[in-house]
Amino acid sequence: MLLRLLLLLMLTTTTLAGQSHPTAYQLYSKKGKQTKYKKLVKAALQADIILFGETHNDPICHWLQNHLARDLGAAGPITIGMEMFESDQQAVLDQYLASTAELKDIDAVGEGLWGNFKTDYQPLVDWAQSEGIPVIATNTPRKYARIVFKEGFAGLDTLADTEQALLPPLPVPYDATLPGYVRMLEMMPGGHGGETFPMAQAIKDATMAHFIAANKAAGRRFLHVNGSYHSDDFEGISWYLQRYAPELKILTISTVEAADAGSGKGNFLLVTDGLMGKSY
Known about the structure:
Layout: H1 2-18, E1 25-29, E2 34-35, H2 37-44, E3 49-54, H3 59-75, E4 78-86, H4 90-97, H5 103-107, H6 117-120, H7 122-131, E5 135-139, H8 142-151, H9 161-164, H10 179-187, H11 196-214, E6 221-227, H12 237-244, E7 250-257, E8 268-272
Helix pairs in contact: 8-11, 10-11, 11-12
């Protein structure tokens, strides 16, 4: 099955870039079969949580996220969660959505807005604002991820209660044998960061899963936007959601470029054209 998927990806490289009517993206099912956007929407409507794993600087991802959000919103109430906002920004984000704060106010909290926010994420946030849709800041404040990178999870134990409220309940579950974390560890064998490198990733995964579960209201689908690595292979956020809210049905989307040799895995695979210009 993996060989078939890789062959499809190699064929797609030629198809996306070389056909007489170029296509910006292709969608594949979990089994590696080419599928259509309407099938993705249909599957998403049957899920409680949709984890849209993106490539952060790929405009096709952001374009499709906006379409999917609108189609889900047209079918029923939704909540949007975003890795791009950290949990200490939630209060001012709520004020922005209520039109009582400006972007500069969000940018002044914590480590501010991502550099590509205005081009890649503001359209989704402003659409949610216009529709009265909640937007949840799910990510770990980076200062706490740095603590974990330096000291491991034990470094979080001495945080004040107000700081721990920005994180999942401690101690955080952790499985160092998950393939995604093993690959991260292999990137820094025995060097600085060693075993704490994937832990810093895990605290982000756990925090995002925690705030998704905490803000999943009955009768509202939850669309979450995150980097693909946080949900590829049904690990990361998905693994933590299975522990925090096992009753929820999760659908994952993974993104790769057609020119890439590797591939991410999810219920759907989004293959984008490598010729598309990037936002940074």
